[in-house]
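About this split. The held-out portion is used to measure sequence recovery: a designer receives only the structure tokens and must propose an amino acid at every position. Recovery is the fraction of positions where the proposal matches the reference. Here is one held-out target exactly as it appears in the evaluation file.
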């Protein structure tokens, strides 16, 4: 699997405006876009620290979670939004759906992981970059060359062998599109994506699925986030 840095996104946490954490309820409804395996780690840590609080998870892709909260507005049943792109959190804040708060240890966070406005309402968890996940075994069977840069994906030989997340529903897909537009410029960026679309076999709802399918041999190339690719590669060599 080969990867190139293309953009930055923050998975962040915020408190919904109808919630008071001063009097934590015995149950919390948490909306999240975190991947399931990552979510289980957080859940275990939280339950160890707060054994009397039960979390009701509502998980989906970034775009779906964001759209759901916007539709529900201030009446959303969510108490906390956890693991959603910073761009989505900023939008929810502007709509008055999430409220300002200051967590413990905020002074130890890097400035880029903190809401830049004075009435801070979200805090970053991590930053990631996207990657090209390349299955060399399947590529060799099909006689396909290894891509070395994003422009290589426009080669007609890859037609039907590339999968990427749908930017309309996936935060990973949105980040990738934003990165292309920022690095190439509007005109060249859109021209690149129109050309790439001719080689795309399908657009997935999940941001990690393209890399997973590449690792499973269901496709040769999957555009996804680098962390997922690294984990899959490590697992394959264990």
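Reference sequence for scoring:
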């Amino acid at each position: 699997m080969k990867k190139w840095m293309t953009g930055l996104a923050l998975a962040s946490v915020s408190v919904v405006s109808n919630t008071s954490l001063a009097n934590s309820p015995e149950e919390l409804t948490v909306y999240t876009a975190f991947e399931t395996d990552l979510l289980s780690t957080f859940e275990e840590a939280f339950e160890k620290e707060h054994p009397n609080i039960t979390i009701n998870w509502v998980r989906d892709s970034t775009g779906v979670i964001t759209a759901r909260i916007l539709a529900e507005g201030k009446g959303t049943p969510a108490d906390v939004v956890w693991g959603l792109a910073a761009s989505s959190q900023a939008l929810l804040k502007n709509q008055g759906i999430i409220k300002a708060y200051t967590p413990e240890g905020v002074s130890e966070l890097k400035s880029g992981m903190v809401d830049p406005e004075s009435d801070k309402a979200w805090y970053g968890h991590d930053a990631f970059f996207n990657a090209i996940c390349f299955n060399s075994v399947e590529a060799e069977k099909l006689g396909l060359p290894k891509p070395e840069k994003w422009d290589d994906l426009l080669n007609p030989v890859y037609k039907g062998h590339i999968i990427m997340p749908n930017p309309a529903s996936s935060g990973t897909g949105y980040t990738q599109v934003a990165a292309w537009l920022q690095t190439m410029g509007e005109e060249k960026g859109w021209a690149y994506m129109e050309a790439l679309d001719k080689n795309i076999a399908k657009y997935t709802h999940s941001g990690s699925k393209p890399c997973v399918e590449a690792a499973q041999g269901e496709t040769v190339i999957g555009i996804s986030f680098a962390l997922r690719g690294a984990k899959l590669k490590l697992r394959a060599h264990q």
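Annotator remark: Confidence is low (pLDDT under 50) at residues 1-9.
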